[in-house]
Amino acid sequence: MSVQPLQVLDDMPTLCTPGLLVMDVDSTLIDEEVIDELGDAAGVGERIADVTARAMNGELDFAEALHARVALLKGLPASRLDDVYTRLHFTNGALPLIERLHAHGWKVGVVSGGFHEIVDRLAREAGLDYWIANRLGLDDATGTLDGTVTGPIVTKDVKLQALHDWAQRNAIDMRQTVAVGDGANDLPMIAAAGLGIAFCAKPKVRAAAPHTIDTRDLTRVLDFLAH
Questions:
Q1: Rounded-to-integer distance, Cα 208 and Cα 27, Å
Q2: CA angle in degrees (0–180, nearest 5) for 146-151-154
Q3: Is 145 helix (H, G, I), strand (E, B) or coil?
Q4: Which residues are catalytic, by number?
Q5: What pTM did the predictor assign?
Q6: What's the first-to-final CA gap in the chain, in angstroms?
Q7: Four-residue CA torsion sign, 179, 185, 187, 193
Q8: 3-class secondary structure, 181
């Protein structure tokens, strides 16, 4: 296990005051990458997983990579989304972390490069306060995915803006915010938060983030917060 820094610093957010936690979803709130799971369901898993890994490591433009991957899902029955959802697992410690923060008056939100069709259900199950994600295009006539993403793409800028917007909505000082994620898309919000953590992150993200957790246990976030 590696949690850095090991000591609790005076300028860290504190549980004694209401705050805000914003997390990524894929490989952070949950263990899986949903688009990779959808790729497996569509028979194009290896092709999608390769693009996912390169995008999350910052080697590809996220929006372009997302469009390319979703195009490969064209024709997948929308009903397969239900099958994928049943195979997802909340990361160890995710639900206890959310429960603990709520008990101290905190708000918890997620901003995902994944899809509302999955994230909406995860958010309800986890009791999240806020969530934003992309939305898959649907061919109503056939009940299949049409290979597009509808509406604005959730980019790194959207993630950063959500952190600021939700903090402002709840009159929470930015010093009382925490951002946790694993991909290059998460770095701006990680840098802007009072406490930014790279969680079991890609090498480039881990190197750039101010703090890291290298074991898959989200309750380790609490180690950074003054009690």
A1: 18
A2: 105
A3: strand
A4: 24, 26
A5: 0.92
A6: 22
A7: negative
A8: strand
